[in-house]
Amino acid sequence: MAARLLDVRDLRVEFRTRDGIAEAVGGVSYAVDAGRTLAVLGESGSGKSVTAQAVMGILDSPPGRVTGGQVLFRGRDLLTMGAEERRRIRGAALAMIFQDALSALNPVLPVGAQLAEMYEVHRGMSRRDARRRAVELMDRVRIPAAGQRAGDYPHQFSGGMRQRIMIAMAMALEPDLIIADEPTTALDVTVQAQVMELLAELRREYAMGLVLITHDLGVVADVADTIAVMYAGRIVETAPVRDLYRRPAHPYTRGLLDSVPRVDDRGERLYAIKGAPPSPLALPSGCPFHPRCPRAQEVCRVERPPLYEVTADAGADGRTSACHFWKEELHA
Ligand code: SF4
Fold first, then answer.
1. Which residue's C-alpha comes closest to atom 5 of ligand 1?
2. Ligand 1 centre from 278 Cα, in Å?
3. Pairing relationship of beta strands 319-321 and 308-310 according to DSSP bridges
4. Counting atoms of ligand 1 from 1, which one is nearest the CA of 288?
């Protein structure tokens, strides 16, 4: 059995705002094993990135703070361990790739020097060896003419090449787990596919775990093993990727799937989930999805659905759904 790398349990995050306390993450649990990819999917504001920031310890603080739960990395809770140990783990064993490479990279330092610095600081390499490793890594993430381009600054690269450099930065210390937060959102479709392919290839090569945060179901189909769908700060469905595509067990997931454009659609109007996600300052009663849900019943307005185990007799073992009517949805 693959080693469990990350085990997030009942994580809760609040933000203090002028208008009150916003519950951005309301008890999220997920786990990632070595060599596996978990996609965390949801619309903007669903809490998927805030959860990742809490795991990485980079929540804006104040006003954001973790109010409960555990973040176990190889069995040890990052939230309660000493600051020095946590810094060591988050620096080397756990790495993050951000959506906006231009603001994540240092604009006034050549990219080769930024990569080399990682080896000098964390591995104690000489400047010369660190530079050599930096160029090798740039070559590995397929930056053409890496040796020459190591002296260029971030703004001299295209968006796709900058994202490759971000991947190289994350890979430099050969982490056990990478969290990639919308790594391809700003890129056009072809470059998106190349960057995802590279990430998947490196994940396999280094047998790492990968948490891929995205709002785009199209991006995860070929890359993820399992998917956790988030809505209004909670997980509403988890499933192996193929099962979820074939038979969603939550109306929100079905809505997301129906909104993905298909090549065989002939001029039909694209489906869109009606309405907008709720504000974390004013979550609807009962099931937070009920104002937008085509299947909503009276019970949905008053009773919040727990995360039900989607049972084996329904032909879908190992899945969960936070919907009172998951059986009907599964067989729809
Ligand atoms: Fe829709 Fe009700 Fe299920 Fe919520 S519990 S997703 S409102 S059917």
1. 323
2. 15
3. antiparallel
4. 4
Digit-coded pLDDT (tens) for 134-181: 999 999 999 999 999 999 999 999 988 998 999 999 999 999 999 999
Q: What is the mean pLDDT of residues 234-246?
A: 93
Residue to probe by mutation, ligand 1, list 230, 256, 303, 324, most atoms within 8 Å of CB: 324
299 C-alpha to ligand 1 centroid (Å): 9
Protein residue with least CA distance to atom 6, ligand 1: 323
Q: What is the pLDDT of residue 325?
A: 95
Q: What is the pLDDT of residue 314?
A: 55
Specify the pTM: 0.90
State the distance from the centre of ligand 1 to the C-alpha of 288, rounded, in angstroms: 8
- Ligand 1 binding site (Cβ under 6 Å of any ligand atom): 250-251, 287, 289-290, 293, 295-296, 300, 305, 323-325
Mean pLDDT of the chain: 89
Q: Report the pLDDT value the prediction gives residue 313, as an integer from 0 to 100.
A: 57
Residue 102's pLDDT is 80
pLDDT at 312 over 70: no
Q: Which atom of ligand 1 is nearest to the CA of 294?
A: 1
The residue ranges of every structural domain in the chain are 4-224, 251-330
Decide yes or no: CATH 3.40.50.300 for domain 4-224: yes
Q: Quick one: average pLDDT of 76-94?
A: 87
Residue 82 has pLDDT above 60, yes or no: yes
Residue 300 CA, ligand 1 centroid: distance in Å: 6
